[in-house]
């Protein structure tokens, strides 16, 4: 089954705004902490790919098969890391494990994640003075979780 392992949002200033794991159980243990560190590291690796001048080459190579700027950035430890940079500099990074997802499905995930982000930021009741804590709300978490849960988990062809 194709499954999203983590979602990460990084600001235009290259500060992590949000990193959430989705392959953990109910009870958090030592392995979950290690997984969080692993996905945090993968998010920072993705940031390095975005910043490299060679990433422009990567974008040009993947452009014909790419949908709206979504790129396969790299594969590490059986996790395919996809990324997209929005026109306002927000970097959305999604780690997918076990199986290759359809680009159309990924496009939908990235689009929905961006909409949830915009809804949170553009909310007139959001205190933007909090800075990085703006995305640390139950409403934002549940919106992201709903998107991840709705991601098509199709069986992998043998």
Automatic annotation (TrEMBL):
GO terms for cellular component: cytoplasm. InterPro entries: Longin-like_dom_sf, Sedlin. Pfam families: Sedlin_N. It comes from the Eukaryota. GO terms for biological process: endoplasmic reticulum to Golgi vesicle-mediated transport. This is Trafficking protein particle complex subunit 2-like protein. It comes from Candidozyma pseudohaemuli.
